[in-house]
Specification:
Blueprint: H1 3-6, E1 13-14, H2 20-30, E2 34-41, E3 44-52, H3 53-61, H4 72-75, E4 83-84, H5 89-99, E5 103-107, E6 113-118, H6 119-147
Parallel strand pairs: 1-2, 4-5
Antiparallel strand pairs: 2-3, 5-6
Length: about 150
C-alpha cells in the first residue's frame, strides 16, 4: 500500500505572503483545517510549510496581534515531514508517529505537491479496514454454523 493510493489529492494551498484573514477565509471556503504553504519552483508547487486552524488561534488570536500584519510565513510549521507518493503507507504512519505530526504533504519525484496524508484520513482507512474484517469474520461464522449438524 502506497501513500499515493490513500492521500487526499485536493489540497488547499497558499503562498508564504498570504495574510491571516486570507488564510482564514480559505479555510472557511474549503472547509479545511490546514493549508499547505507552497513555493513555485521549476513548474512545481513545492511544500514549504503548513498552517493549521490551531496555528491561527494559538499564534495569532491568543496573542492579540494585528491580523493583517501576520503572514503564512510567520506562523507556518516549516519543519515538515514530506513524504513521497510511492512511500509505503505503514512506514509513513510510523514516521508520522515518531515525529508527532498529524499531517504530511505528499510529493512527486520532482518534489511537487501531489496531496496530503492526515491522521484523520488514516483513522477513516483503519475504520474501513476493521469493518471489512468484521464482515469477513461474521460471514465465516455463518458459514460454519450452516455446515454444522446437530445430533
Amino acid at each position: 500500500m502506497s501513500v499515493g493510493e490513500y492521500c487526499v489529492r485536493d489540497v488547499v494551498v497558499a503562498d508564504a505572503h498570504m495574510s491571516v484573514p486570507e488564510l482564514a477565509r480559505l479555510m472557511r471556503s474549503y472547509h479545511v483545517g490546514d493549508i499547505v504553504v507552497v513555493e513555485e519552483r521549476g513548474g512545481e508547487r513545492v511544500p514549504e510549510g503548513i498552517v493549521t486552524d490551531r496555528d491561527l488561534v494559538v499564534e495569532v488570536l491568543a496573542e492579540e496581534v494585528d491580523l493583517n500584519a501576520v503572514t503564512a510565513a510567520d506562523i507556518m510549521s516549516a519543519d515538515l515531514l514530506v513524504v513521497g507518493e510511492g512511500d509505503d503507507l505503514w512506514e509513513t504512519v510510523e514516521r508520522m508517529r515518531d515525529r508527532g505530526v498529524r499531517r504530511a504533504p505528499v510529493v512527486n519525484q520532482r518534489g511537487g505537491l501531489e496531496g496530503i496524508l492526515t491522521v484523520d484520513d488514516l483513522i477513516d482507512l483503519l475504520a474501513e479496514q476493521m469493518s471489512d474484517l468484521v464482515q469477513l469474520f461474521r460471514r465465516e461464522q455463518r458459514r460454519e454454523q450452516a455446515t454444522r449438524t446437530v445430533p
